[in-house]
Amino acid sequence: MGSLANESFSIELQQLDTDSDTATKQRTQWLLASPNPPSLCHEMINSVKRNVFPRGKTTKQSRNGAFFSVLKGLFPILSWGRNYKATKFKHDIMAGLTLASLCIPQSIGYANLAKLDPQYGLYTSVVPPLIYAVMGSSREIAIGPVAVVSLLLSAMVPKIVDPSVDHIAYRNLVFTATFFTGAFQAVFGLFRLGFLVDFLSHAAIVGFMGGAAIVIGLQQLKGLLGINHFTTNTDVVSVLEAVFKSLHNEPWFPLNFVLGCSFLIFILITRFIGKRNKKMFWLPAIAPLLSVVLSTLIVYLTKADQHGVKIVKHFKGGLNPSSLHQLQFNSPHIGEVAKIGLICAILALTEAIAVGRSFASIKGYHLDGNKEMVAMGCMNLVGSLTSCYIATGSFSRTAVNFSAGCETVVSNIVMAITVLISLELLTKLLYYTPLAILASIIISALPGLIDISEACHIWKVDKTDFIICIAAFLGVLFGSVEIGLLIAVGISFAKIIVGTIRPSVELQGRLPGTDIFCDITQFPVATETPGILIIRVNNASLCFANANFIRGRYNF
């Protein structure tokens, strides 16, 4: 029996040795004949698949339902729509109606800021929210025109075509820029290029938004004072110079200023009441629409338009007309329009994803940035074909939507339907709406763009980031929107490069009686290891760009 056991044991050892030799030969073969890495084309295809197809094990059932899986990946509404209940719809319809009461006057005002006819602002609040509702994953974000993107368009497109000379050509270029914006956003999402948005740092965004808010406010002096001729430049000096020249050389009608300031004070008071009493959140939301209604009635009943009050006048209603034939792909300025689309795409994505993620964290769910980019891109692509200009997530309207108790993105659908009904039935009533009211509504939304407390926090945390913040702020204020963005991105790149080439390096020492190593300058009790130099490279990895710097610093 013992001999049989020894024989079986030796046989097992021989098998193990054989298996071990076979495994070694296989590993050697894998190393010597390793497969080629996937090509760029395959990586791009896999990137698109990861965004479109849901992750999980591939089974026969999943293969049979691959088509539906693709649809669920592209249209999240198919997933959560199955569990949608009437109790949620009750909250969503109230949030959507509250949102529409704020969206209608703001959209008209932002279209005026973008130097477009007022109906285009309302068009932009119909189609893009509907597209986002079926493709987007954020439950709270409110889609529509925003002040900063409107300012970008009004600052950059007039350098190609002056809207006062050829308004139709200007509008067509805006639609074309919207198409490029959507195309860039969709490409960023499909190929997982969201990291490009991160080059616009938080500090740069804070500074840019603050400068843009002041510039937008100064631009509204045209409507608030009833000025006919105004500068196309956006810097503070040019705007103030144009205001003083107009007040001295043109007749000034103080009724515009009185009417605008009166309702501006009214809107700000309602906002103060809403902040003090959370149950009154609906009051500041409906205040802009109430201001439009009351001011329009005042102008109509008193014939104030005959006494110098500037009014909207022509206001085309109805469904969104097709703008496919208006896209200018054969324009000699197509390169400049594409550049405008790229800048607007990055800025709009930065704002929308920041807004969406901030409210998603409050509700406790994750927001996929790449899928959001695809949804934003598709809604702007479709919008450019239906007479809409660039839409994105608005922080002020999203905050109202959240406060109104929205449960899902259905609130955007309710808002879009309400705006559509207004386009069909109420546009003729807005003929006498004073431009000063639109200016006051835009001005009332600007304090939310200026975040002084965040700028102070940036100063405390990182002085270099604060320099980026101030540079973006001053660049927008005294240069232009493009200069402000260029300065912010340029300094951000410079910070990254300098941090890589000349990183912070710490000499490490051992704490007595422990195996812990730490910075000697921070912990003087730590002792160096004799004959061994231990360093820690911060903010970068050791590479060819900083190897000579580190070698020269420690002479090794």
From TrEMBL:
It is a multi-pass membrane protein. Its main location: membrane. The chain crosses the membrane at residues 141-161, 173-193, 199-218, 253-274, 281-301, 372-392, 398-422, 429-450, 470-494. It is found in: Membrane. Keywords: Membrane, Transmembrane, Transmembrane helix. InterPro entries: S04_transporter_CS, SLC26A/SulP_dom, SLC26A/SulP_fam, STAS_dom_sf. Residues 89-472 form the SLC26A/SulP transporter domain. Pfam families: Sulfate_transp (PF00916). It comes from the Eukaryota. PANTHER family: SULFATE TRANSPORTER. This is Low affinity sulfate transporter 3. It comes from Datura stramonium.
